[in-house]
Amino acid sequence: MNVVPATLNYLHHLPTSARRQEIGAIHQQRQQWINQNKKGFLRYRMPYETLASFVARSVDCHGASIKIGNADEVNPEERATIYTALRSFMPWRKGPFSVFGIDIDAEWRSDRKWQRLLPLLPDLQDKIVADIGCNNGYYLFRMAPYRPRLALGLEPSMQHYYCFKALNAMARQEALHADLLGVEHLSLFPECFDVLFLMGIIYHHPSPITILRDIHNALLPGGAVLIESQAIPGEEPLALFPDGTYAKAPGIYFIPTGLCLRLWMEKAGFEQVELFCQHPMSGEEQRATDWMRFESYRDFLDPRDSSRTIEGYPAPLRVFLRGRKKAAPMPQRKGETCL
Ligand SMILES: C[S@@+](CC[C@H](N)C(=O)[O-])C[C@H]1O[C@@H](n2cnc3c(N)ncnc32)[C@H](O)[C@@H]1O
After folding, report:
1. Is residue 154 within 6 Å of ligand 1 at its C-beta?
2. In the chain, where the domains are located
3. Is the CB of 132 under 6 A from ligand 1?
4. Architecture of 19-324 per CATH?
5. Which of 11, 202, 257, 327 is deepest in the core (most CB within 10 A)?
6. pLDDT band with cut points at 50, 70 and 90 for residue 286
7. Whose CA is nearest to atom 22 of ligand 1?
């Protein structure tokens, strides 16, 4: 008898088209990798195990800060233990969170991005959703109140994976899961998702159209993708290909204008593509905090001209687009003919 490990129990929510055996094999291989008793793995596994012993009585994912447990649910000694374990996941890039009264002010005010998505957020109730590159799961938690059947985060970083697992072990949101997978594994999920989120990812990939096609294939007919990306200003269908870093970030390939990204999506097969929000980045929204002590947005810009990155490129905008996969044709009734 094949026993599915608890970390894979999201599989039963997926349609039969999911390539279960291959997902299971990669899953098992990655679990074996992170279960090694070496310092690099234990530094995140141990705080996860510590935090997993505290289960919150109250959880609230409706507000800007995700609230997991109230301060009065633990005693001062327990709070000190929780604080130390949470600090092990520094730098905290996405947030804010409040865990048993400990406020985690992350580098990014991720609540602002979520607010911008809301006007075009598809119905998530009872839906199968994926968030590609989910980091510590901030957006998965924000999806929870909409009652998806499954919200699955694909996140290859062990640090972020354990951080999400720790938060959800305390929050116990049953529809939320994450696995140590990346955008390159989407082909294992043909026609599986009603809604896919791809935020802060596409410019890190050498082949954006391939990603968009993979997303298109991974959506069910009629499904929707929400994409958020860095972008350069301009009305033309162009993308910047930086020589070296962009705003001090390595591993950046194509940074499109909003129009260019819309055209990529259409070329990949999406319909009804809408660019519904565009805004400049700001040092209020991405900044160093007590939970992320490295350089942040303002350090990435030319100190004499904030419209330029430190390398002299146009400073980034953020753009938001939604597209749909064509719905399946209505089944014909017996005896009907089409002209
Ligand atoms: C810029 S962050 C964006 C996080 C989040 N989606 C957001 O919008 O705030 C990029 C995330 O993608 C993850 N990542 C790295 N390689 C990836 C891959 N091959 N597939 C999916 N995600 C990846 C990183 O670990 C990180 O959490």
Report:
1. yes
2. 19-324
3. yes
4. 3-Layer(aba) Sandwich (3.40)
5. 202
6. very high
7. 133
